[in-house]
Amino acid sequence: MRSSENKIQVNEQLSLPFMGCGTWAWGNTLLWNYDQSQDQKLQQVFNFCVDNGVTLFDTGDSYGTGKLKGRSEQLLGQFTREYQGEEKINICIATKLAAYPWRLTRQSMIAACDASAERLGKPVDLVQMHWPTANYAPWQENALLDGLATLYEQGKVKGVGLSNYGPKRLRKVHQQFAERGVPIVTLQVQYSLLSTETVEKLGLKAVCEELGIQLIAYSPLTLGLLTGKYGNGVFPKGVRGLLFRYLLPGIKPVLDCLREIATDRNKTFSQVALNWCICKGTIPIPGAKNLTQAQENLGALGWRLSESEVTELDQAASLVTRTMVKNPFQTT
């Protein structure tokens, strides 16, 4: 895995930017209040990101609520076709395939990837296992992983990644894939100043460095909680609002530290929190629903926190009494 000035080379076919864009909200009416009138704003987000070198877009075949399932992939396909800038050749669509209970065979994953490619109107660049089944149906997982490896062997994808795997399970899967000559190039996990356990306490970062796997940090702003925009009676609607009311009383040390560094740096809370993820060697993939949010996210690039500032944030994170709810599919 090689780093250039602006890209991280994860294999011969894939180079990734220091930050990507998550598209969970694109089609999600339940948590993110999506409606199709937002599509023009989302296309502005896409174009702005690509114009500025943020060419990694993370999606999933389960993204989209109800009848809108797959909407995120459809939008990314449309936006990619319509984009005409110089960076078009570098666009990387990373799709996560869900381990649905009815997906039981190698062929089911191949068919799922083919369906994603149809929605995108192009081959999937980076295919990822959305979550492991080891915590509840370990017998199901090997066939699905076999499907991922076959996709790479057949040349249908440029790279294979995993999501929500811990260090022990990662080593086992890495060995399985290595025996077939299939490299795992990325691992996506929940990681932010409020979600450090898996990466740091369980030693996942060290294992990824040893195996040459690039870490991708999802929910790097903890669903928006680390933007500093909430509290004092201001909360988002729905499930996020309930979660924020629970978490806010216990995260004051992190918010205070973010405020201090953001003021000194003339940056925003979000930009500092995202830059911390980058300094930790991960590729954060914050979401954006409009151009203003995308512009703020990209303000995390082009500079680096000092070692002392990273240490201050680490210490603040160790003092929080309420951390982000752990993904139940995450393995050790």
UniProtKB/TrEMBL annotation:
GO terms for molecular function: oxidoreductase activity. Keywords: Oxidoreductase. Residues 19-316 form the NADP-dependent oxidoreductase domain. Pfam families: Aldo_ket_red. InterPro entries: Aldo-Keto_reductase, NAD(P)_OxRdtase_dom_sf, NADP_OxRdtase_dom. GO terms for cellular component: cytoplasm. This is Oxidoreductase, aryl-alcohol dehydrogenase like protein. It comes from Dactylococcopsis salina (strain PCC 8305).
